[in-house]
Amino acid sequence: MASDTLARHGIAVGGLSVIIAIVLIFFYLLYVVVPLFRPAELEPVASYDLPAAQAGATLHLAMEEQNEVGARFTDAGHVIFFDTHDGQVIDEVRMALPLDTRVTSIASAAPHQATVALGLSNGHAIVVKHVYRVTFPGDRRLITPGLEYPMGGAPVPVDPEGKSLSALALQVGEEATTLVGLTADRRMVLSAYQREESFLDDSVSFTRATSQVPFEGAVATHLALDDDQRTLYVGADDGHVSYFDVSEPGAPALAQRFDVAGDSRISALRLLAGGISLVIGTEDGGLSQWFPVRGESGEQVVKRIREFDSLPGEVRRIAPEQIRKAFLAADASGNLSIYHATAHRTVLATRLADTALAGLTVSPRANAMLTEDAAGKLHFTRIHNEHPEVSWSSLWGKVWYESYEEPEYIWQSSSASNIFEPKFSLIPISFGTLKAAFYAMVIAVPLAILGAMFTAHFMSPHMRSVVKPSIEIMEALPTVILGFLAGLWLAPVLESNLPGIFAMLLLLPPGVLLAAWVWQRLPPAIRLAVPEGWEGALLIPAVLLIGYLSMAASPTLELWFFGGDMRVWLSTELGVDFDQRNSIVVGLAMGFAVIPTIFSITEDAIFAVPKHLVNGSLALGATPWQTMIRVVLLTASPGIFSAVMIGLGRAVGETMIVLMATGNTPVMDFSIFQGMRTLSANIAVEMPESEVDSTHYRVLFLAGLVLFAFTFAVNTVAELVRQRLRRRYSTL
Predict the structure, then answer these.
(1) Does residue 445 sit within a domain?
(2) Beta partners for 240?
(3) What is the pLDDT of residue 169?
(4) 434 within domain boundaries
(5) Are 401 and 422 in contact, with CB atoms under 8 Å apart?
């Protein structure tokens, strides 16, 4: 018939459309996710002779964030600003050095400070900040470079004895500036300048505190001062690093001395963005990351956290990125590598020159670099390295993050700080997805399947015609309403009546059995007055009574067994933390949402079992219950299994209930008293706030791809099992 043909083709087209839509979704997810795993690339842009070479040798290179203007600080006290694309000099500033003095050392503050200190031969230092004013004359961007002097134009004293500064460390803050100088006679001097602003005329003055750092023994070769001006690292020629507490500028104290180089020697030492992690390069090409962690007695102890792939030659230069926990490293043979600390990966390794680089800097946005070779040429190179934070270990392994006591699985994608270390572990939210689905299925599966068994096999047809549609209507309830009720009503009720809830769970099974036993002991005249198949309705009063008595007894039970507060008892006696929006709430709310799906499919599968199988079993003397277990369930098992798998897929993909009914915290705790964060809820929460095409944005799509793949795998396995069950029991 034409209607049959039309229906057949319509169903075929609909099925193919669904498959095509799913495939397109999969490929779109891949399209967004694949760039996460593209390797970094270097794009040479320009090479030119050193701008204003007559102004002296380069001590420090810098670049502004648009990558249009570079700065070269020389040993003659000159600052040359030039166009990074062709080397044309834009401006040249000569700092006013005191008579008969020369520049003997240089130090830069944290990369985002854009501040440099020039150490002088008279024990003083000039602190200067390179700034770039952006204007748009005629709709064209114009960047005008210049210098500012945060501590005034005159050099500030570092060494009271006026000895030459052979090495220098600098950090600048809103309230204080600290300089640490190594003098020619091997003393180490700390000068802390406290900024004071007058309330009368807004004039600024500085008070100075000077002390000597108690560094003894080996010869200091490298200095590094953290961003908070509380910690000083001193690398020595014997391969050791001394860790000083300089939070009290007048009394620096040695906190720890540790070996970092073994049989080699320290050749480079820099702090990563944030000033917590220390990256150390050695003469044998080794690179390692160190930072303080809390020791057993509560003190801060610097530990080696990770080793990076070695460079072929001696590490000469380390250039940290300004925001990310990434850095560039170059060796004595002209090799350069880009690393990311948190991801513990070598992003790129290449050979740039035949000899060691005389200068290396990375732009504030980490998308370009300036290098100077031994022949006095500058090279401007673009860096395509959008997502160095992503690696297999950072996504799926335990990572030792800064300020953590040990490696952990952490999801924390954002912070108020620009130097925040993003934590993109998918383990906690994947765990939360499985945890939420598990507790939902624990509640939904037995209730739905047992209810379907009773409805299809034991309930009267008239009662079934009322019960089945009523339960199926439950599936139409918006999950946002269920989540709203679970979070704002159910969670506080459970928290206030915890003993009653557990008493109800314990008393309901024996209470139902007791009610059934009492019913069987009633006189036949009473039992026969109830039509066959309506007995189940008599359990409703029993269930309601048990629930009421359990909740009414909750305060008394809490007082008798838990000292009046079960939450406190759980914490003090069992060491279990209690979160109001926990797994119990999610299990009840999401179980309520999943029950109709499992019930409806299971009931249809059981009801569809051929009547001749049921009648034959009963005719052979089997009881109705034996018939249900031995015949009906086996025959209906493919449908029942499909129902459970579809319910599991619904639970895994549920968003609004877990979003509103849990604490939404990505914790790795299977406790029923703790909440969780799921993959779907995490995407819903963070996608609106993520920057398009950022690492965070693409990792959220990766989470969606993981959820897609998990659902696909579960459904595939479910279909294979269902087909096997169908073949096995089709002969019944």
Answers:
(1) yes
(2) 259
(3) 93
(4) yes
(5) no
**pLDDT tens-digit series, residues 316-369:** 999 999 989 999 999 999 999 999 999 999 999 999 888 888 899 999 999 999
pTM recorded for the entire structure:
0.88
Q: What is the distance of C-alpha 157 from the center of its chain?
A: 45
Angle separating helix axes 539-552 and 554-562, nearest 10 degrees: 50
12 is written with which tokens?
A: 């075929």
Strand stretches in 246-376, DSSP E = 253-259, 266-271, 278-282, 287-294, 300-308, 315-320, 326-331, 335-340, 345-351, 359-362, 368-372
Distance between CA atoms of residues 371 and 376, nearest Å: 10
3 state SS of 497: coil
Could you tell me the residue range of the domain that residue 232 belongs to? 99-119+149-252
Domain contains 331: no
Which CATH number do you get for residue 446? 1.10.3720.10
Distances (CA, A) of 349 to 331, 343, 346: 11, 16, 7
Rounded to 5 degrees, what are φ and ψ at 404? -100, 150
From 252, 276, 310, the end of a domain falls on 252
- Rg (alpha carbons) of the chain, rounded to whole number: 36
Determine contact, residues 281/313, Cβ cutoff 8 Å.
no
Residue 482 maps to a domain: yes
Q: Which residue has the tokens 């277990």?
A: 629
- What is the pLDDT at residue 535? 76
Q: In what side-by-side order are the strands of the sheet with 368-372? A: 41-49, 377-384, 368-372, 359-362
Which residues fall within 8 angstroms of residue 402, CB to CB, at 6 or more apart? 274, 276, 277, 291, 325, 421
At 297, phi and psi to the nearest 5? -95, 10
Taking the C-alpha atoms of residue 370 and residue 519, their distance in angstroms, rounded to an integer, is: 88
CA distance linking residue 562 with residue 576, whole number of Å: 14
Rounded to 5 degrees, φ, ψ at 69 are -125, 130
Name the domain count of the chain: 2
* Cβ contact 371:352 at 8 Å: yes
Domain termination site, one of 218, 252, 286: 252
